[in-house]
Amino acid sequence: MLKGHQTWIFESKPIIAGSAAVGGPFEAQGALAKDFDLLHDDLWLGQDSYEKAEKKLLEQACETAIKKAGLKKEDIQFFLSGDLINQIIPSSFTARTLAVPFLGIYGACSSSMEGLTLASLIVDTGFAQNALVGTSSHNAASEKQYRYPTEYGAQKPPTAQWTVTGAGAAVVSAGGNGPHVTAATIGRVVDMGISDPFNMGAAMAPAAVDTIEAHFRDLKADASQYDLIATGDLGRVGHSIAGDLLKKHGINIPEEKLTDCGILMYKADQPVFSGGSGCACAATTTYGHLINRLRRRELSRILVIATGALLSPMSYQQKETIPCVAHAVSIEI
Amino acid sequence: MSSKKRKKLSPVQQQYQDFAKAREPKRPIFKNCAKAFFAGGIICTIGQLIQWIFITYFKFDEITSGSPTAATLIFISISLTSLGVYDHLAQWGGAGTAVPVTGFANTIASAALEHKSEGFVLGVGGNMFKLAGPVIVYGVFSAFVVALVKVIIKMLGGM
Amino acid sequence: MLEKFIWAFIIGGAICVIGQLLMDGLKLTPAHTMCTLVVAGAILGGFGLYDKLIKFAGAGASVPISSFGNQLVKGALQEAERTGLIGVLTGIFEITSAGISSAIIFGFLAALIFKPKG
After folding, report:
1. Per-residue pLDDT tens for A285-302?
2. How much is the pTM?
3. A152 and B32 in contact by Cβ < 8 A?
4. Does A164 share its domain with A195?
5. Are residues A152 and A6 in the same domain?
6. A156 shares its domain with A28
7. Coil, strand, or helix at residue A78?
8. Residue A62 is part of a domain; what is its CATH number?
9. The pairing of beta strand A78-83 with beta strand A102-104
10. Could you say which of B43, B98, B124 has the minimum Cβ distance to residue C111?
11. Same domain (yes/no): A238, A141
12. What is the CA radius of gyration of chain A?
């Protein structure tokens, strides 16, 4: 049901029946390695191209999530997925493998929460018993498409981020036990005129703040109702900007409650500049680490705000700025 | 951000630009320049050494040794690119590795390697000059203009 | 003789610092930076100044990409000397052929043998 201007409350509380996180070499050495279901030491996953490797990551995440939910492919009514590769081919080709009715989505790095929002809506309204949602990203495939060939010697600035190689998937079901989705706020596209594709954090922070503001306003809530509020991939630069921007807007979130998946993902000594990014950043952190913490009752109520930068290599060359969007989902146990 | 770009933004956006810039980790310009100086200097010194070897041991002179020297540096750069080492050297060296002809060779090799998955004709062949293309286009065009101007001035009895 | 090596180091390093300032100070991309240096090399070559720099600094001036611009201009001017105005069009690649040929040939061989490491 609609609450306020742009928030949905899921009265039937759809359950996250099973979730999975798959990662690559950098993630295996990262801070959240223990919360991954599967980790690869080969960036190619034995495939012929980076794009095919990304598809394999997504396939593995989906199959693992379905298995952990105690279901079979045939029990899933709909598959919602998106990623960063042109025409979302990893998602489409995974849908081919799964043979589940497919709804492709695109929200750049906010795809994970966009997907979870829609999957929860479909299940909450009784339009499905089980919906599978997934997203993926691959460091080399993203660099190849958005920036430079991976062996190219371009010096990255300290504001740059490191695209997570991985995939996250979850099965949302109409019944059962486990962490459940209670509400979701759909974000507006916000563009504050940042045009530097090596500084996505600064571009996305205003969108995250706008969505958090809308979420609290629509539900007449505040930070005290959550144990943890995690943005998707603002990185250290974006996180610090968002923190200050929230204070400027009069939204009080204690520092220990506000975190970012891009900061959580990697260890301090890994050469990831400002932190992790990519669709898989929010997805693997949420569907692995955060869901595990919820299941262990270390957290009881969290808000995940996945952030996406909606640029393309062409829009940048045509001198456009970077519009961004952020979608928030609250998950409770 | 250039002032022309800034004028296109609304006041709220301009305010945010300043807000974000104040929280942006500054590029360590001085450190980067020092590293670039060192890396670029080393590469040019190696070039000088290679040139000396060609002159001393291989019957080339000051003029004709230029081509084999360039070819040797290009070979070294492409080898390091293929071994996955050049991009790490370049993150440290910055312009010191990009500006010498080794950087040019790196753009060609890295693009060729990256697009191998799209086949050898359209992938490797079609993408090889993705990053090097602008350098060749602007080099040729500016050389054409400069030479044209010089020759015309000469013809008109100038210099 | 050692002097030649020292000047190669210093001048080569200095040209790279100019490139670094263009990238960090003016926030130009590497491609824009290299184009700027090539065009600068062509202009200096037109004035006959780049060859003087090469005589003095050796590889310190001939290795950076700016030397490519100089070689293109020299090729054009050499051919124009021989065949008149049309030489400006036909002679451009005469001197630089080693650089471009070897980059293409070795680059293609690399793609035949190696895979990128990511």
Report:
1. 999 999 999 999 999 999
2. 0.93
3. no
4. no
5. yes
6. yes
7. strand
8. 3.40.47.40
9. parallel
10. B124
11. no
12. 18
